[in-house]
Amino acid sequence: MKKMIMLAFALLVLSGCKEKMPEPESFSFSKKVEAANREQKTVSIKHMVQGNQVYIECIVPGVTFTTEKKGAKKGKIIVRSNTGNLYKEYHTAAFVIKGLPKGVHLLNVEIVGKNNQSFGMKEQFYVTIQ
Q: Which of these, 49, 43, 61, 66, lies nearest to 124 by C-alpha position?
């Protein structure tokens, strides 16, 4: 009896699998749209505050911060505080700003070349140290 129930269940499952699955729809575009300026500089900066430290990660296509990668522009990251004064220069894409005093700070992050020529990539954001 147990074998009959298992056989009936197997036949029921297999009979449901007969139907043909639908094909995925494809899309086509009649007009190709190109970016107006392929050389447009983009930078993605993520930050996280823990205590009085700010962890910053910069993703900059086409720019390297080390001497190992060939073919990319060599650069560095300059961080200024809300007073406009230079806080520090960094030669890595991810870094930690330590020792900020309590309060709200406006940080300006700019990507520049080795000779401080601007690449036109900068971002500013507020951080609150409690």
A: 43
Query: pLDDT, tens digit, for every residue of 12-62?
Result: 666 665 555 555 554 444 444 444 444 455 788 999 999 888 999 998 888
One-letter amino acid of 68: E
Q: Which residue, 122, 118, 66, 130, is CA-closest to 92?
A: 66
DSSP 30: S
Instruction: State the Cα–Cα distance between residues 15 and 82, nearest whole angstrom.
Output: 70
Sheet containing strand 53-59, edge to edge, reads 44-50, 53-59, 94-97
Q: What is the pTM of this model?
A: 0.63
Find the largest Cα–Cα distance for the chain: 85
d(CA 97, CA 72): 26
C-alpha span between 48 and 80 (Å, rounded): 17
pLDDT (0 to 100) of residue 115: 86
Residues shown for the chain: 130
Task: Quote the CA–CA distance of 38 and 33 in Å, as a whole number.
Answer: 12
